[in-house]
Design a protein that fits this description.
Elements: H1 2-20, H2 22-42, H3 54-73, H4 78-98, H5 104-112, H6 117-132
Helix pairs in contact: 1-2, 1-6, 2-3, 3-4, 4-5, 4-6
């Protein structure tokens, strides 16, 4: 049931990002869906969360790198929030790999926590941008490729 709710939230958030978030929304949605799909084969079901999930850690680190690249290329604030929330998951993998005798429930909770706030931050950020009528700053190429300069 939790997996179903995760996929509903993720796909709905990503669909909204693609429809309303411009190229940043498309980039973020692509990263999230790719990481979510790649996490399935990357997990090690026999190990559960009693051992470090190296495959999932690699996918999470790759997602963090992609989100960081988005932050560097975006003029929006919401990718920063997404990246910050997801950094918690990568930190959980790192902490589990450096700590002996970690509690599997805490590792699982910390590593999977970002699955909810990352897409929520994306949706809220895009909604706030749309409500504010945020457009690219003057002198910056717009989505149509035309460069607009401030009057005067």
């Amino acid at each position: 049931m939790i997996s179903l709710l995760f996929w509903i939230l993720t796909l709905a958030a990503c669909a909204y990002a693609v429809a309303s978030g411009g190229k940043d929304g498309l980039w973020a949605a692509t990263l999230i869906v790719a990481a979510s799909v790649l996490t399935i084969p990357a997990g090690q079901p026999g190990l559960a969360w009693g051992s470090v999930q190296v495959g999932i850690g690699i996918v999470d680190t790759a997602l963090l790198a992609g989100l960081y690249a988005l932050v560097l290329h975006s003029r929006r604030w919401w990718p920063i929030w997404m990246t910050g929330f997801h950094l918690l998951a990568v930190a959980a993998h790192l902490a589990a790999s450096l700590t002996e005798g970690f509690l599997p429930k805490i590792y699982y909770a910390a590593a999977t926590f970002s699955a909810v706030p990352v897409p929520v931050a994306m949706v809220i950020g895009i909604m706030l941008d749309r409500r504010a009528g945020v457009a690219p700053p003057a002198g910056v190429a717009r989505h149509d490729g035309e460069i607009r300069y401030p009057p005067g």
